[in-house]
Write a structure and sequence with these properties.
single chain, 18 strands, alpha/beta, about 300 residues, seven-stranded mixed β-sheet
Length: about 300
Amino acid sequence: MEPFKIHILGCGSALPTTRHMPSMQVVECRGKLFMVDCGEGAQLQVRRQGLAFGKIGHVFISHLHGDHCFGLIGLISTFGLLGRTATLHVHAPATLKPILEMLIENFCRDLGYDVEFHAIDTTRQYIIYEDHSLTVETIPLVHRVPCAGFLFREKPSLPHIRPDMLKCYDIPVSQINNIKAGQGYTLPDGTHIEHERLVTPADPPRSYAYCSDTSFLPRLTEQLKGISTLYHESTYAEDHLAMAEKYHHSTAAQAATIARDAGVGKLLLGHYSSRYTDERILLDEACKIFKNTHLANENIAIEV
């Protein structure tokens, strides 16, 4: 099975601490790397995790709060210093475009590559990126500024060829693509081998949802139904529910409720308030509602 991993570069919230970096992740899927949010120190965190700068082709910014985008101009600069030539695609709310253009003009002249900006509509669900194996769609969220999460979905793959059957019937390699596409094979003596005998089922498509800063939104369960892994902000424990409501954030219990009601496979908590020196209080509250919950932490990679 091709790699599909989430590299946690930072899982803290707005106030810097010595324990957590601000929000940023890299989604690794089938040889491609996608940056999701880009807090301060992004380029350093990419190095720490041993990720290839050159494989990052797209950056997705959920909203214009500093802990989610202050690292973008530094990352762009570092790409230039490394001699990048491939276009970098930035997907973000439209209000970032003039800010980014000003920063590039003042700090990143003669980059040697293009930065192409793609404005996203944070109010609707739609596909903003697609290739032969993956789609990325927006998840409309409610925060103090326009905000969207991102849903990465693998496309269905072809079934696996059974090498033992190829050897048994001396089927030429030239027929593999036809068999994967659904055909059987006819032997020289006229015997037809059904397609189902020559393959094993394809791997089920995997999916990952990144729900950045947001109020508790029960409607998310429909869009997130049955996804493999969900990252949902959990800034506060229930004893600070009033704070969560005031600042349009979620509690760990609310994140777990979304995971349970959507029937997701696994829940990751993150975007921790700096008031917590031990996030196990968040984990304990969430696990009472949704057992398969885990704490995000810097410099770990999580299989989707």
